[in-house]
Amino acid sequence: MCGAEIAAWPQGVQRVARALQAAGHAHAPQLLDDAARTAQQAADALGVAMGQIAKSIVFRRKGDDAAVLVVTSGDRRVDEKKVDALVGKTGRADADFVRARTGFAIGGVAPLAHATPPVTLIDRELFRFEEIWAAAGHPHAVFRLRPQDLAALTGGAPVADVVVQAP
């Protein structure tokens, strides 16, 4: 990844690319032809299983107004009661809150390079896969990683059971 290549990308993707470089991550962001605002859209664009998409869900912690980032498998739904049990009572975060705290728009929230570091939880269901993909700061950008890389890239975020159990 060269400086000129990075400079041509949207600002959020540039932040993610620099954070990945600084962490020594092997894979740079990739720009997709179409937006991948949902896990299904991303999976279709990449030709992978929906569960391989690491979707970033942001909640608003009620006690201190902190952003709570839950990075979960694309084929799972977050169980808010489980999240609350781990981090305190949370509520929905609107688009303005998400952009202000993360620096990213909904649909492109990366698991790293946030404007304000969030409280982060990693869904253990991601570990079903050898390779996963996460948003890279823009709805058209993603990057490849292993589930094990998430903890390092997010500053040591814990792996937890945070999803509704599949039938």
Short description:
With 167 residues, the chain is of the alpha/beta class. 29% of the residues lie in helices and 22% in strands.
Q: Enumerate how many helices there are, as a single number.
A: 6
Number of strands: 8
Structural class: alpha/beta
Low-confidence segments:
none
Which strand-content bin applies to the residues?
15-25%
- Report helical residue fraction: 25-40%
Largest sheet: 8 strands, mixed
What's the rounded overall pLDDT mean?
A: 92
Radius of gyration from CA coordinates:
15 Å
Q: Termini separation (Å)? A: 43 Å
How do the helices and strands follow one another from N- to C-terminus?
A: HHEHEEHEHEEEHE
Shape: globular
Q: What are the key terms here?
A:
single chain, 167 residues, alpha/beta, eight-stranded mixed beta sheet, 8 strands
How would you describe the overall organization of this protein?
It is built from 6 helices and 8 strands; from the N terminus they run ααβαββαβαβββαβ. It is of the alpha/beta class and 167 residues long. A hairpin with a 5-residue loop joins β2 (53-61) and β3. The longest helix is centred in the first third of the chain and has 12 residues, at 11-22. Strands 1, 2, 3, 4, 5, 6, 7 and 8 form an 8-stranded mixed sheet that branches. The termini are far apart. The mean pLDDT is 92.
